[in-house]
Amino acid sequence: MFRGDLAEEMLGAVIFGMERTTPHRHSSVQKGIAKFAKRTGVEVDTQFFSEHVAVDDYHNHKLVEPIAHLFSDPTRVQRLKQGIIMSFDARKEFLDGLAAALGVAKPTEPAAQAEL
After folding, report:
1. What is the rounded CA–CA span in Å between residue 32 and residue 47?
2. pLDDT tens track of the chain, all 116 residues?
3. pTM for the whole structure
4. Cβ contacts of residue 6 below 8 Å, gap of 6+?
5. Do 18 and 87 contact (CB within 8 A), yes or no?
């Protein structure tokens, strides 16, 4: 995913595709673990995830400040977006592969509807 020719793609992948989404992802993991614990009675230490939810919001805002000058250049913004898409696509491939290896069935309905 990281090629040396387009730094903006790498910045988009890391800052926006990974770091900026960490608080949301980790809070979702915490909710999933809580559901798992309630269903199974197995307690899981979620400190790692809770620390990332609390700290990463500040942290990822600090990552954006040094690249703010890129936002005024439409070409660079497009490259940032391409990096974000590549990051999300890579995560999807990883998680789909992990689910397949673990024998997790594909959902039959969107996740948002499944929680209702």
Report:
1. 14
2. 566 678 999 999 988 888 888 888 888 888 999 998 999 999 888 888 888 777 766 777 888 989 999 999 999 999 999 999 999 999 899 989 988 998 888 878 776 555 54
3. 0.72
4. 79, 82, 83
5. yes
